[in-house]
Structure formats: C-alpha cells, structure tokens
Design a protein that fits this description.
This protein is mainly alpha-helical and 98 residues long. It has helices at residues 13-27, 33-55, 67-81, 85-94.
C-alpha cells in the first residue's frame, strides 16, 4: 500500500489499507444490475427464512421466546379464515351453509 504523506493521519497500517480499499472501490463505479438483482433476491430469502423460523419452525412443546408472537399471529389468521356468528347465521338463512 502507498503510505500517506501526512504524518499521524493513519498511524495504523491496517486502517490505511482499509481506507485505500474503500477509495478504490468507489472509483470502480456502481454495482452491476445483476449484482443488484442478486442482492434483492438475497434480502427476500433472508426475510422468508426468518419469518419461517419465527412463525412455523417446531421448537417443541415448551414455551420459548416466540410463543407470544405465534399466539397473536395464529389468532389473527384463525379469525381471518373463520366466520363470525352473524356471518354464519346469514349464510344458513340463505341456504349456502349446512
């Protein structure tokens, strides 16, 4: 690496090397479109795996740190996919529900 001429700016050679790498990387220009797309896919995969691990991974019967979140989430899902008593009554009156 090329040393800086000012005395005391970077006394540590490792920090100077980090600085040089960052300056050289900036000179290369922006990342390619393929790199950006791969980065977006990577973020989507990380989010998906994290969501799976928190909400669906089997951690056994003992309570764990995600138990409260899971109860809330599956309560909302059950409420969304089930009928209220008024909706069920209305569908029975129409003959669309046995």
């Amino acid at each position: 690496s090329r040393p800086l001429h000012r005395k005391g700016l970077y006394d540590d050679a490792r920090l100077e090397e980090v600085f040089r790498r960052r300056v050289d990387r900036l000179a290369q220009g922006p990342p390619s479109k393929l790199s950006r797309r791969l980065q977006a896919v990577n973020y989507a995969l990380m989010f998906s795996v994290g969501t799976y691990m928190v909400l669906y991974q089997d951690y056994g019967d003992a309570p764990h740190c995600f138990t409260g979140l899971r109860k809330w989430y599956f309560g909302k899902i059950d409420k969304f996919w089930s009928l209220s008593s008024e909706e069920e009554k209305e569908l029975r009156e129409r003959g669309q529900l046995k």
